Amino acid sequence: MRLFVLPASAALAVLMATGGYAWLGMSDDMRDAVAQAPAHATAPDARADERPNDHPVDAAGWQALGRLYAARGQHGQAVAAFRNAARLRPDDATLLTEYAFSAAVTSHRTVADEPQRLVERALQLDPTSQQALALAGTLALDRSDFEAATQHWERLAQLEPPDSPMERELHASIAQTRRLASAQAGRIELVRAR
After folding, report:
1. The CATH number of the domain where 117 resides is what?
2. Of 33, 42, 158, 194, which is least surrounded by CB within 10 A?
3. What is the extent of the structural domain holding 57?
4. 76 pLDDT higher than 50
């Protein structure tokens, strides 16, 4: 996966194109299920999201369903499934990160949006979650908050094995976000000077 700096609107597209959902840690069993499931496979309809108690599926089942939808690129349906799972298991950092990823793909992001809230909660629960750190950095980049993106990716780089391909990619991304932060600060100072 390459986390290099692109225009902010393309940040999530890069994650999806360079590993997408597999990046979020899909298990081998889930990948097998996705490969074997028929294209027309369905799950509880959207009304099940409004009345989760009407459907006898536990948090693990809802999470698995969310992963299946996300792996197929059906992030709107994945959000509904992850929402149900999160209602049943609100303190699961991995689940919240998966939910945040699909929510980010489907939403028109703003500063205080759902994906940001979810990934912040995931990082409170697990400050070393590599998936949450990567997503938090990407969401910060999408907001043009280059300092925050740099901080998240620096924390992530510390968790990677030295000189691994991912660590090298992260350092390249960090260097680019630092340059963008510096350029942004320079523009702000220029505007203030006028």
Report:
1. 1.25.40.10
2. 194
3. 8-193
4. yes
With both helix axes pointing from N to C terminus, report the angle between 75-88 and 93-106 in degrees, rounded to the nearest 10. Answer: 150
Burial grade of 118 (CB within 10 A; 0-12, 13-18, 19 or more):
buried
Number of domains the chain is built from: 1
Closest of 24, 84, 19, 79 to residue 57, by C-alpha: 84
User: What mean pLDDT do residues 49-63 have?
Assistant: 63
Token pair, residue 87, equals: 């209602």
- Does the residue 186 lie in any domain? yes
Q: What is the pLDDT of residues 165-185, one digit of tens each?
A: 999 999 999 999 988 888 876
Instruction: Work out the angle at residue 112's Cα, subtended by the Cα atoms of residues 111 and 115, and round it to the nearest 5 degrees.
Output: 100
Residue 72 one-letter amino acid:
R
- CA 166 vs. chain centroid, Å, equals 17
CA distance 129 to 119: 10
Tell me whether residue 101 is in a domain: yes
Per-residue pLDDT tens over the stretch 112-158: 589 999 999 999 999 999 999 999 999 999 889 999 999 999 999 99
